[in-house]
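WARN retry 2 of 3 for item q-0093 after timeout on previous attempt; input resubmitted unchanged.
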Amino acid sequence: MAATMDNSNAAQATKKKHLGIPEAVFLEDVDSFMKQPGNETADAALRRLDEQYQKYKYMEVNLSQKKARLQNQIPQITQTLEILQHMQKKKETTEPMETHFLLAESVYCKALVPPTDKVGLWLGANVMLEYDIDEAQALLEQNLSTASRNLETLEEDLDFLRDQFTTTEVNMARVYNWDVMRRSKENLIKSADKS
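OK item q-0093 returned
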């Protein structure tokens, strides 16, 4: 009983892990699958399987775009954290920090920044907020850990999605082969009847 509960808990955890991605069920018995409502013909069953396959492709595109955004965001957060650590060290001195600001694409301006304990962070949607260096560092570290965790989850979801592609493709091939076998049997029966 306890082993059964552990297995069901593990299955629920896996389903929760890939929430939103329906699991493709492998067709063990194509004959019983074709007897289900909505599978009157092989073409209808193949259309439904192809529709499911196209949905998986759509999900893959969306997840891949999210993954690309996160892969771009993580190095930016890391670089900003490094800059904050450098500013933290320079905060104690009285000499200004020499830096280069990006004015436009490939256009930089040299500037001297006096020691400060405040920084401005872009939050997105053209919004910038001023933070203490310590607060900014804590916020960015939290954002970095969240982005890294999200990237890991996305990679797991993409792996799960690839498994669903494979299962759906195999199911489509099995239904197609079932239909070819069925038609060849019908042709054999027709040719035997003509003889």
